[in-house]
């Protein structure tokens, strides 16, 4: 047990050694998901989950509180009660956004695991992606990392399989014929000139992600565990033989 201080008070955290297992009704449902900023994710059936953008919705209040904190701060002197009151309000607002992200990630991951027996997602290098200053705030607000961590946890609990695959060319390749179709970030539709396939960009990527997952699973079952075509290791969370 440990005591933790948050902006809204103190909490006691208990660590319990418990091998949690939940019953899962296996129906042979499989899906690939493409994580995004426009939609939180799009699956290989074309279904989407909204990106709530909690930070963006709270930005006006956060900026207002930050300005009030700056105005009331007096350098080199003991800070007033008004300063501490506003400072605590700012911290609580940041904590609220953090908790909203965590709650959304947990609920989305659990819903996905409960409705599927095999889930494939992109093994995104989020640390590298946030170096893009134009997208860093939006990527952090989407909380992809929290979502994938909860996805792996619930997969173990429910005994389903989760596979993380490299994201290379999932957006470019045509999910129908395999021809590479170059796209800019603003191009939201996949149009293949060879086979005539027209899909939402993220739907096309999700279908490619699922196919990559099948290939890795086949390699896994053939005892070539954890190696992709490029030789990079892939994550398997398998709760059932």
Q: What does this protein structure show overall?
A:
This protein has 241 residues and is an alpha+beta fold. The protein has a domain at 32-48 and 102-237. It contains 6 helices and 10 strands; from the N terminus they run βββββααβαααβββαβ. The protein has helices at residues 54-72, 81-114, 126-129, 136-142, 144-158, 201-221, and strands spanning 2-6, 9-13, 30-35, 39-43, 48-50, 118-122, 161-165, 189-191, 198-200, 235-237. A 6-stranded mixed β-sheet has the order 5-4-3-6-7-10. A two-stranded antiparallel sheet has the order 1-2. Strands 8-9 form a two-stranded antiparallel sheet. The chain is flat, with a radius of gyration of 22 Å. The protein starts with a strand and ends with a strand. The model is unreliable at 225-234 (pLDDT under 50).
Summarize this entry quickly.
With 241 residues, this protein is α+β, with helices and mostly antiparallel strands. The protein is built from 6 helices and 10 strands. The chain has a domain at 32-48 and 102-237.
- Percent of residues in helical segments? 40-55%
Radius of gyration of CA atoms, rounded to a whole number: 22 Å
Quaternary state of this entry equals single chain
Q: What would the average pLDDT be, to the nearest integer?
A: 87
Shape by Cα distribution: flat
Topology summary:
Layout: E1 2-6, E2 9-13, E3 30-35, E4 39-43, E5 48-50, H1 54-72, H2 81-114, E6 118-122, H3 126-129, H4 136-142, H5 144-158, E7 161-165, E8 189-191, E9 198-200, H6 201-221, E10 235-237
Parallel strand pairs: 3-6, 6-7
Antiparallel strand pairs: 1-2, 3-4, 4-5, 7-10, 8-9
